[in-house]
Design brief:
The protein is an alpha/beta fold. It has helices at about 5-10, 15-25, 45-55, 70-80, 115-125, 140-150, 165-175, 200, 205-210, 215-230, 325-335, 345-365, 380-385; strands spanning about 35-40, 60-65, 90, 105-110, 130, 155-160, 185-195, 235-240, 255-260, 270-275, 275-285, 290-295, 305-310, 310-315, 370. About 35% of the residues lie in helices and about 20% in strands. Bound molecules: nicotinamide-adenine-dinucleotide (NAD).
Length: about 400
């Protein structure tokens, strides 16, 4: 795959050659004792369904502790995963982690409004942090998390699993090599039906806990995808919302939001999100001589690409099953060991926080154009530094 990366794709990538050398080192499983220990904070759906199982198959990361407000559940999960009793933490004794050398990385998997506080506490305990998306519920909190990482001289990574997902990497590389001509248009659609009766949706529908409903939960995948697909940053955005305030789900958040980013290259990226439309996590990229349709693009598995060229759709491409969460946590483990560059740092999460705020500002002003060219540039292009596939 790497021979399809154009020279243009490498330009502007800080330290790309060093990073490439490190990133392309063969993925060899580390002996268990040498794996980087992760404490998983919050034992909800994602932790139990994806993250703890991912740590079981990770090559360089392992589960070292669990943190939960439910002691019985925490003890059960610890026992099921072979952890000793003293590797179970509550939120009240969280700071005890400072004295626990088994834990190097704290993985924050809590409702969004709790990310900042628990991230900052983990830095104060001297740990590195991997934090779920969206990194926070406000730009100010996101900035405070980045400042706390710097003060503690520890690493902050945001869990953008698509940066490490083979099909998304393949699509980025196809776009970088320009074989379909210039990219003209990106369309991202990210949403589903939310259910107020489901506890893990109840907080997502709460403006204060989620920081923005469907946009913060699902739309963020489209905001981030437009940026990693194009490897550039939007200069402006316009957005509109359509929200039925009689629907009990939408008392404090918007429902359907549609936005339009303009990029310096001239590409336009349309995005939409909703908690009241049929489930979708897909995107389409239209180039001068072809179209890339990824549908689904961001599921945990089964992502599929259809390349349409000359009016003909080629047979859909799926890559061998892989555990995206294990790949992401192995990447963090390699960052901590100094063996891989930081691809999705706090600054990457902050950029999405600022763009989502700009989208909501535009919504509040009925589609007014909001300038977004505040100078952020990603340090590493995933298409250049993340090998494909590391786990094969
Ligand atoms: P969830 O509701 O299933 O789990 C949240 C956990 O936090 C629960 O165990 C709950 O008990 C605990 N919690 C602690 N304090 C709480 C409080 N005050 N209110 C509510 N819950 C509290 O949520 P989830 O789906 O596991 O999502 C957790 C995080 O992971 C979110 O930030 C979400 O955006 C992110 N996420 C990411 C992905 C991904 O693909 N990267 C997928 C799903 C969720």
């Amino acid at each position: 795959m790497s021979n399809r990366i154009s020279r243009r794709g490498l330009i502007g990538v800080v330290g790309a050659s060093t990073a490439l050398a490190a990133a392309k080192a063969p993925a060899i499983a580390t002996p268990d004792a040498d794996k980087v220990g992760f404490a998983v904070v919050g034992l909800g759906k994602l932790s139990l369904g994806q993250i703890i199982p991912g740590l079981k198959v990770a090559k360089g990361a392992k589960l070292a502790a669990v943190v939960s407000g439910h002691p019985d559940k925490a003890r059960r999960v610890a026992a099921e995963n072979g952890l000793p009793a003293d590797a179970v933490y509550g939120y009240d004794d969280y700071d005890r982690m400072a004295k626990d050398p088994r834990i190097q990385v704290v993985y924050i998997v809590l409702p969004n409004a709790l990310h900042a506080d628990h991230t900052i506490r983990a830095f104060k305990a001297g740990k590195h942090v991997l934090c779920e998306k969206p990194m926070a519920t406000s730009v100010g909190d996101a900035e405070a998390m980045i400042a706390a990482a710097k003060a503690a001289k520890r690493r902050l990574m945001i869990a953008y699993r698509c940066h490490y997902e083979p099909l998304n990497l393949d699509i980025m590389r196809r776009l970088r090599d320009g074989s379909l001509g210039k990219t003209r248009l990106v369309n991202t659609t990210m949403g589903r039906q939310a259910d107020l009766a489901e506890p893990s949706d109840a907080w997502r529908l709460d403006g204060l806990m989620s920081g923005g409903g469907a946009l913060a939960d699902m739309g963020i995948y489209g905001v981030n995808a437009a940026r990693y697909l194009l490897n550039e940053e939007p200069v402006s955005v316009r957005a509109w919302a359509q929200t039925d305030r009689t629907d009990p789900r939408f008392k404090t958040t918007e429902d359907l939001i549609d936005w339009q980013f303009r990029f310096p290259s001239g590409v336009i990226a349309n995005g939409s999100t909703s908690f009241n439309y049929a489930p979708t996590m897909g995107y389409e990229v239209i180039c001068e001589r072809g179209r890339l349709v990824a549908d689904p693009a961001a599921f945990y598995g089964g992502n599929r690409l259809t390349v349409v060229q000359g009016g003909q759709a080629q047979p859909p491409l799926s890559l061998p099953p892989n555990d995206q969460f294990a790949r992401e946590m192995d990447w963090m483990a390699d960052v901590v060991r100094g063996k891989a560059p930081m691809v999705s740092p706090g600054e990457e999460g902050l950029q999405d926080m600022k763009l989502m705020k700009a989208i909501l500002d535009s919504v509040a002003r009925d589609g007014a154009t909001i300038a977004t060219d505040w100078g952020y540039r990603r340090a590493y292009d995933p298409a250049v530094v993340v090998d494909l596939p590391r786990s094969a």
